[in-house]
Amino acid sequence: MVQSLPFLIVIIPFALLFGVVALEAGIDIGQILGFSVLVLAGASQFTAIQLLSDHAPAWVVILSGLAVNLRMAMYSASLVPWLKGATGRQKAWVAYMLIDQSYALAIQHYERHPRLNLRQRLAYFLGAAVAMCIPWIAASWLGATLGRAIPDDIALDFAMPITFLAMIAPMLRTQAHMAACFVSIVAALILAGLPSGLGMMIAALLGMAAGALLEVRTERRQEAKS
């Protein structure tokens, strides 16, 4: 729990912002709280709110949220060797509380301390996740509550693109990331005339394909050189 506290510097402001932006999008406090409890994934929550604001069909909202969270499948796969033997119930709550930060802390801790037993690994994950997931939920509710005090003439539309820029920019670390970003932006602009949300979803798939293709080529070149 102590090791996860620095992440709250980012988690709490984002959660507050989500509550405010979601309220601005016409979702009531109960729905906002339910959103954070059931989904518990900041990037996909912001994506869904943006699409809902654009009146996108429900299936586009759901599929886009799933696409954004596909990285969780990779996180899960890398945790399998460390959490072998966990019961179905244990796997369920680990899956529920699996976020970027809890994964990053857990996998680093497991690699530094490979002799930990299963119980110790699960205990570490639980401590880190509880210290971050509960504040996210609470801050989302607080943001929605405080959002009511913001005058209607103060537009909050700018908050969404700024939030996405803040989340995405630090992730652009490799050529594959840059390619995925560039292709998705260009495709989104070209497909802007499609029904609400559909163009963005296609652009996201094209971006992921471009990034994956470049990454495969880069790995093959490195293998050839070695």
TrEMBL record:
<dbReference type="GO" id="GO:1903785">
    <property type="term" value="P:L-valine transmembrane transport"/>
</dbReference>
<feature type="transmembrane region" description="Helical">
    <location>
        <begin position="32"/>
        <end position="52"/>
    </location>
</feature>
<protein>
    <submittedName>
        <fullName>Branched-chain amino acid transporter AzlC</fullName>
    </submittedName>
</protein>
<feature type="transmembrane region" description="Helical">
    <location>
        <begin position="122"/>
        <end position="142"/>
    </location>
</feature>
<feature type="transmembrane region" description="Helical">
    <location>
        <begin position="58"/>
        <end position="83"/>
    </location>
</feature>
<keyword id="KW-0812">Transmembrane</keyword>
<keyword id="KW-0813">Transport</keyword>
<keyword id="KW-1003">Cell membrane</keyword>
<dbReference type="InterPro" id="IPR011606">
    <property type="entry name" value="Brnchd-chn_aa_trnsp_permease"/>
</dbReference>
<feature type="transmembrane region" description="Helical">
    <location>
        <begin position="154"/>
        <end position="172"/>
    </location>
</feature>
<dbReference type="Pfam" id="PF03591">
    <property type="entry name" value="AzlC"/>
</dbReference>
<feature type="transmembrane region" description="Helical">
    <location>
        <begin position="6"/>
        <end position="25"/>
    </location>
</feature>
<dbReference type="GO" id="GO:0005886">
    <property type="term" value="C:plasma membrane"/>
</dbReference>
<keyword id="KW-0472">Membrane</keyword>
<keyword id="KW-1133">Transmembrane helix</keyword>
<comment type="similarity">
    <text>Belongs to the AzlC family.</text>
</comment>
